[in-house]
Amino acid sequence: MSQQVYQFSNTVIDKMKAYYANFLITPPQGALFRAKTNEAVITAYKSGKVLFQGASPEKAASLWTKDAKTAPTQATYSNKAKTNSYAPSPQLFSSNHIGSDEAGTGDYFGPITVAAVYLTKAQISELKRMGVTDSKALTDLKIRHLARDIIQLNIPYALIALRNEKYNQLQKKGWTQGKMKTMLHHHAIQRLIKKIDQSPLDGILIDQFCEPVVYKKHLASEKEVLSPSTFFMTKAESYSTSVAAASILARTSFLKQMDILSEQTGITLPKGASQKVDQTAAVIMKKYGENRLTQIAKVHFANTKKAHAYLN
Ligand code: MG
Description:
Oligomer: single chain
CATH architecture of the largest domain: 2-Layer Sandwich
Order of helices and strands: EHEEEEHEEHHEHHEHEHHHH
Distance between the termini: 68 Å
Number of domains: 3
Number of strands: 10
CATH superfamily of the largest domain: Ribonuclease H-like superfamily/Ribonuclease H
Bound molecules: magnesium ion
CATH class of the largest domain: Alpha Beta
Number of helices: 11
CATH topology of the largest domain: Nucleotidyltransferase, domain 5
Helix content: 40-55%
Strand content: 15-25%
Largest sheet: 5 strands, antiparallel
């Protein structure tokens, strides 16, 4: 059975529902409507995603594609894109697999968070329908909502946060951010593998942040080795729903930590590493002294130095 997925505005979805009024059947949980025609089963979701499945989904979809906001399905990836032996085969994206991703690495304030998520084939389809996709295309609010939905489905995951104090200690010890990320991904994945026990696992996909040889070198420096069937690719969240889900959980965890740190500091900590961040760091230094930054920021970032310019 083939399928096509498109994104539509609410107006178009309302039009579709009216068009299929005589073909409506009971929708699955979370769907706005489901219609069954001779050509296809059409399911519309609150996220604006509409799924066309069945005998000729293209034919059914062709009525609406001119009004679609996005191209069909997810990005395509071919074996030709392989640049190294660690690149996954495209089959992995629809197989039972673990995906991992991180958040907070480019943000001066707040921790680095890493999540690993395990999805079965069936869960991959389910999460796609719910709108779990590349988090870069989603707002923070939407990401938080999707994270709640993912957790409600009892999907196995592992989440690790590297607090700023520990981050700064490791950084002083000579660890690069690459090494920190490597060990966080590794531990999250190991924890998750233990959690899923005997469930079928066809592979592990890490959203690539460094060359796989460098990743292995970092592991070796801590006497660890790469798990079998581990693959790497950049922009993995555009291809793998497990990585997309991991990215959503990591980002949500980062956002929650930022809320907590902001509340404790009594100052809303901005994300990123902009000038606004420099100014906020200066306010914190004035109020609490520079030491306070070691608990809430990645102090080796240039922002710390730049913040001093605001202290007079
Ligand atoms: Mg990433």
